Amino acid sequence: MAKYLLLKHYRGAPSAVNDVPMDKWAPEEITAHIKYMNDFAARLEKTGEFVDGQALAPEGEWVRYDGEGRPPVTDGPFAETKDLIAGWMIIDVDSRDRAVELAGELSAAPGAGGKPIHEWLEVRPFLTEMPTITE
Asked: Is residue 70 part of a domain?
């Protein structure tokens, strides 16, 4: 089994087919979307493939260390032009092909008008061993 992170980008990914921003959706469309996501996770829990997942708030900032005795440096809150990750899901599956299959299915969550979003999801494997450095 291998773990993969599925990232749902709200901004910063290629445009989705049904590219209506969530803040323009009707309340029942948001409810249907969340239900789809929860049902998807519940189904994967039954197969043992679901590890965890969360939606993220749009607020956030970059933080980095700035030296001993100095406060951390921040960049944020994020400007409208920056990437925004809307949420993530960790899955534990037999293969990359299965991770891609599940990401494709998750991409079909309903959006505006009840139609599938067909959004792009980023699929990232967990690092299982340190890369080998060669000269």
From this structure: yes
